[in-house]
Amino acid sequence: MVAERAGYTVTMFLIDVSKSMGNTRTVDLPDGPNGEPRTTEMTNLEWSLQFVLLKIQEMIFHGRKTEQCGVILFGTEETDNIVNQNHGGYDHVTEYIEIAQPNANTLAKLQHLRPSEDITGDPIDAVIVGIETQDKYLGNKKTWTRKMVLLTDGESPIVLEDWEQTAAKIKSLGVITAIIGIDFDDEEFAFKEEKKSRHKRVNESFYKEFVSELGQLAVVGTCAFALQECVRPEVKTTKSALQGTILRLGDVEVRSDEAIEIHVRTSKCTAQVRPASMKKFAKRVPDDEASQQASQRTEADGDGDVTMDEGEGKRDVYAQIKMDTEYHIDRTEYDEDEENEDNKKEEGKEDENEEDRSEKVDKDLLVRGFKYGATYVPCPDDGQFPRLNTPRGMDICGFFPLAKFRREFVMGEVSYVWADPSSGEQQIVFSSLVQAMLSRDVVAIVRWVSREGMDPKMGVLIPREFEKVDCFLWVQMPFADDVRKYTFPSLNELVSKKGEKITEHPYIPTSEQEEVMDRFVDAMDLMQAGDKDETGDRMPWFDPRLSFNPAVHRIKQALFHAAIVTDLRSNPIPEPHPEVIKYLNPPKRVLKRAHDTIEETINIIKVKQVPKKVARARKDGHVRAEDDDDAPLLLDVLPPKSASRAGSQAQIPSQVSRSPARSATLVDTQVSQKSKAKPAEDSETEDETEDEADGSKSHAASPPLSQAASGVQDEEEQDSLQGSRRIIGLSNPLADFRKNLKKGDIVSKAVEDLTWAIMEILVKPFASRRHSELRDCMRELRTTCLTEDEIAVWNGFIRDLKQSCLTKSGISNKPFWKSVQEMGREISLISEVEAQNLGGTSEFTEEDSVKFIET
Family per UniProt (predicted)? Predict the structure, then answer.
């Protein structure tokens, strides 16, 4: 495929706005959330304009100044074109948008187009005006590409006089022409309009004859197929600009008589495409609430406000968020004599103290530095360390056999290296080097510096011989220090502690398991799962040349669609093109063929689902869980003295040293003795039961519920809490949850730990006494998940809770689930309607939510 120069194109869009373009049609939309079919009504002009809008939006997306377009309307009530001004005639043809680089205003003007009330226009007149307008604008720019798109429903009358001269003019100028007809017959698209007027049938035949006269320059098709092809993913092949550099072999400074310098040019062979970057928007705060949120560090650009219709007459304004960075120095110092930190229960006081100790500094007073080991090394005054003086060019450092080339080490993009096209001598030397490397089947190690003073890159030059030219392919490789070598133990050989080889072990597959796995792999072979070729043989199912990145093309489709429609609710984004999702699912033929083998593999190997591991919490920024006696054990702070603890104070030393051995002293001597005040729900019976389970005895009579119960702390629970770094405890989970939410940046961790705490409490003895507390936790958890975009977490938790409560293998707590059902719809699954009101998504409908809580 010949590379096309990017840009340098002028496209003329000739749009029919005659009376017949106002006829309405029913257009299918993507199915609704529950799979219900949806349709909408729009005129032929609105429907066909989507093609023009998508094409222009693609030009805007590329942002090239040399990619321009103009719009000519025919069938307008007025007349305004250069041919009419110079020679007269060509009535009802208007130059609507002059040739220029398109922008957002271009799309806005097109969206305001409406069909004429009783006027019809001649398409041939529009073609002539478009050719003359384009030719006058380009003048002597013969290298520019000329394109023309005619959009019509075929109902307008055509004057067929001297149309051959018009076709000859198009051929002489090399104008690439496309005629897009509304409901035109298309054999390739398998569409044929049955109830077609005689006038339209005659015009359609003329368009096909007109296109055949133009040959390969023109094409005619139906609008439905054109709209589908607009979203077809494609790899754009463009001509990369040549960059000059020098290829050196040997030391040209010390041994210039033994060295070679070749002037070469480089160009891109491949270029990575990334999805369009997303911008963050936030709902603009009303004036009466702005003062309450003055402490926020974000600013919104008023010029970039976006107004969105939220339904029920509500229109919210969203503004783009900008980053505002401030630098603070934390002057906080740990005071060893300060023992009353735990008595500060007011969260506001702690926040105020933190702000008082934080000193704001100007950025100009800071010095840039880099971390080296455990210290930071400041940069010199200019903010940069001295750079290595690197000369521009490509230096060959050595050669090695192509067979030892490590394909998995290749990094980044591939570049061509060509000989200088302006020097025949350089081309001969360059070609000799390529042929010599090909004859010996070697590749070269190259150090490439793209510009003076730039960081060098190491890569490999691979010789290539094409039909008429020799060249190199350059690919970047990692430095030796960047390659990590990891060793792993054998998968099929295990050795015991005594050094004996183990032959039977759950980790060692048996011969039966190896055989069934071989059959499974053979059954899933994709090399003969594709379509049949000309000889009737099956081809490979996957072709890398036809595979596309769904993230790139789907985001691009969403951006284009949002730019050309006025209401996304009534006209949502259409389904992705079949080519985008072609390889997302395995072929059905292979799945059917491998079904029995898969079942056999599962049974013989005993495949089981691996339980999800709980993510470890961060080491800083978390509020510690106040779970039983964790405070003195984990936070290195003595429990506060109070009258309610008088009965157990005799068992706690009056003074504990703050030496490093303090934690060990607490663990060794006090874990089985100390006690702590508990909420009223935790009765002494529960503590005694846990003590009996641990093999301990109660030391005193049970006090009233208003006083703290004395008992033995469960060491396993302490170890579990300390090891998993939970931030929600079991004693007062709701208070811990609310306390951590105020931190602001650990919502996900707090939600995860509260779901864990609820499930843990339900399996403990006498959990029925805390049912009311757990329901409050669930109510708070659901509200947080709904507002903090943790909807999937809540829906997964409530389903797991129901299943566990109603099955014997789980919690088996039917009374608790019955009490949850009595709370009604407010505690059920979060539906799509609830999620959309707060900008979220859910896979469950309102009916699913009601049915879930009632059954």
Answer: Belongs to the ku80 family.
